[in-house]
Specification:
single chain, alpha/beta, seven-stranded mixed β-sheet, two-stranded antiparallel ribbon, 6 helices, globular
Length: 177
């Protein structure tokens, strides 16, 4: 199991994109990683855009990035809510400053934009936030998944297999580009 012993933090809130939450979380766990879910409140049930529930393990304020090897931010409408939490931005910046892998897909680039960490990065996303990324200084490309250093970005649900494999490989230190 390529990620045995790794701990990954995933952010959540209501209206996450169901597949973009569950597919990577399950693949990371299948690869041996422990995935903890953080939200505004610990132990609360949050629902995806299509009603699939997920329960948070911790509150954002209870998390230390030092305890984790990587960060996952799913898409959907949740990122627009997530980027309003100071602790989400603090944690995202800490992962970035520590050069720990950060993966985001679809609309999740909003969190990285608000954390101020996309300038000069080559990234992808749903075309709906292309202008947001470009205006924040990123170079936007239309690809299934993009790895720029420790940041992994993806476009949308059909790209989940390529995107998630890239994130797993970056976490495992075996990404070949």
């Amino acid at each position: 199991m390529i990620l045995q012993g790794k701990k990954i933090l995933a952010f959540t809130d209501d209206d996450f994109e169901d597949l973009e939450m569950w597919y990577p979380v399950l693949r990371l766990r299948e690869a041996g990683a422990q995935v903890d879910l953080a939200a505004a409140k610990a132990g609360q049930v949050y629902h995806g855009k299509y009603g699939v529930p997920i329960t948070s393990d911790y509150a954002f304020s209870d998390i230390s990035s030092a305890d984790y090897d990587g960060l996952y931010v799913p898409g959907g409408w949740a990122p627009d809510k997530l980027r309003r939490f100071g602790d989400v931005l603090r944690l995202t910046r800490e992962f970035h400053e520590g050069r720990k892998p950060i993966a985001q897909i679809c609309h999740a680039g909003w969190v990285l934009i608000s954390a101020g960490i996309v300038s000069g990065r080559t990234m992808t996303s749903t075309p709906g936030i292309k202008d947001d990324l470009v205006n924040a200084g990123a170079v936007w490309v239309d690809e299934e998944a993009v790895v720029d250093g420790h940041i992994v970005s993806g476009r949308r649900p059909p790209d989940l297999p390529v995107f998630t494999k890239a994130f797993v490989d970056v976490l495992a230190g075996v990404y070949q580009g």
